[in-house]
Amino acid sequence: MPSDVLVVGGGVGGLVVARRLALEGVSVTLFEQADALGGQVARQRIAGIQLDAAAESFATRGGSVAALLEELGLAGDIVTPNPAPAWLQRSDGSAVPLPAAGLLGIPGEPLADDVVRVIGREAAERAARDADLPASTGTDASSLGELVRARMGDAVVDGLVGPIVRGVHSVSADAVPLERAHPRLRAEILERGSLAAAVRALRAAAPAGSQVAGIRGGMFRLVDALAADCRRLGVGIELGARVEEWDANGVVVGGRRREGVVVRAGGTRGGASRRVTLVTLVADAPGWDAAPRGTGLLVAPDAPGVDARALTHLTAKWEWVAEALPGRHAVRLSYDGVPDDAVATATRDAGILLGSPLRELHEATRHTWERVTPRLVDGVVAGGDAPADMLAAGDALADDVLADDVVAVGETVSGTGLASVVPHAERIAREITGA
After folding, report:
1. Separation of alpha carbons 318 and 291, rounded Å
2. pLDDT tens, position by position, 369-383
């Protein structure tokens, strides 16, 4: 077991691995070049309250995040969202509830009324013919889009799967490798005989209850608790510390070489990145009082008049947010890149997506994040920027060692979302200590 470990990056992955190593008696120093910890599990102050600036929920699969929250004394503050469905803003400008029984938009019951409502009877009947195809049809596909087109037709991809995958993975369904959509999907089709049967089986195997949860008061409380516990355990946390060079056995910070086993918690060196902008609005909008679009919407790429990729109606989704903003609404819209006038664009888009304009805008914030471009490892995507509540179970994992032989944690190698980042960081800590 090493005596000293240097963690480069103070996001959740870095904090989790640092804490676990410290619990095992390892001396740990964590370097974060920003002036705050947590990465995109970040707080913002708006309209007199604190809200999450990015991640506002976590996938419950596996139970690893809930177990960590229990260790940190936050189990009593785990909350589930309003069970009302999310909606889809379609390419013709209309909005419909998303079908209930599906996986990334792939219907488990192609002829269900909620599926027909979205794609139409003719397309639903074409999708139902999936049951008549040989089990092997489409299973040689490399992408999710290719598979669904082969088994259920173009309309299912264009009208359902494509918009949902865009909201989840920020790319088209034809750009998502099949194993990234779900690592067991191909095998389940061959075993069950159809894509719809595979979807039903995978959904049935998922744990009962809500697939997503949050923390009363904000997900950023996880970062506060992790940081406090790290400090209690003696982890040295250095903020504003830019690591100038690193290798597997040390780092250079401020021109000084520091020796120790290095764990990289962040993007790969020299990796490409892209921008994602999140705009939060707090407003008076009587037309939104009835939560006309449930907890929010995903948006088809060619939906008219709307630039947003997705909208979350925070006060409709989370009871604690509604209680903190009585009589007001909080919504958050996400964009690829940076809109020219982000607040004005978001104000317009929110009115279109929720069916009526806001009456008065009280406050707005804009946060733009640099996201590491997902990298391919043996043909499987690692990383991405899916919201935690939209991920399929079993995200694919990349290698644990980066190209410079430095052990890594974080979404670039674990897959996106806390349900992937947390158990991966815990595993890396155990491997380092031999526990």
Report:
1. 12
2. 876 644 433 222 233
